[in-house]
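Listing S7. Sequence submitted for prediction.
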Amino acid sequence: MTDERYVSATLLRLDPAWRRRSAADRQADIDAFCAELGPATQRITQHAYSTSGLRTEGELLLWRMAQTPEDLESAAARMLSAGIGRWLAPAVSLLGMTRPSQYVRKPTSQEQSLFSGERSRYLIVYPFTKSTAWYLSPADERQKVMNGHMKIGHHYPQVRQLLAYSFGLDDQDFIVAYETDDLPAFSDLVRELRGSESRRATVRDTPIIVGIHRPLGEILSMLSGGGR
């Protein structure tokens, strides 16, 4: 067994017509959807986040990790064919693979998997691509720039990060994900990173998706108009 795991972030958009179904039909759809996801969690690790009012593209963010892409594939197929899943459409989908960083010799607790331990309140995830010039520059120059980048990150211990590699798997180079209970601190971190040398190599780092961690059933109830 290898250390690699496949990671996916899927932002789902709900068809507004679903809300016009009867309350009984909406609840039946929610129950069927949650029942179908139960067996899937035996092969994948999954966390759900609400994006209602935070992104126009969708209302539900699923953050998943599995041993194989086939596990992610089968879970998604079952999900989209059950209950409210038939009314959901992927608006943003990101795929990557966890691997040791070439710039970090010994990862700290800030740079470990976001799938272990207690969940923080917020997850921020986005695709990230660097320039061709970055990859063609000498390794020691890249390491120096990344040392400065990581030094800034260590000033914000309340923010954890996961970097998944997407080379050859998706359009971006990486999936970058952060987890925190402190959004103002995260915003300060990003603002400080914008002024670092590493920013020169950035080609793409949007869309930035912010999700609020909640139990899946609670999120679906909110979408149905049930509130909290």
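Caption to Listing S7: primary sequence and predicted structure tokens for the chain studied. Residues 34 and 100 are 34 Å apart (CA to CA). Strands lie at 6-14, 44-50, 60-66, 88-98, 122-130, 159-165, 174-180, 202-204, 209-213.
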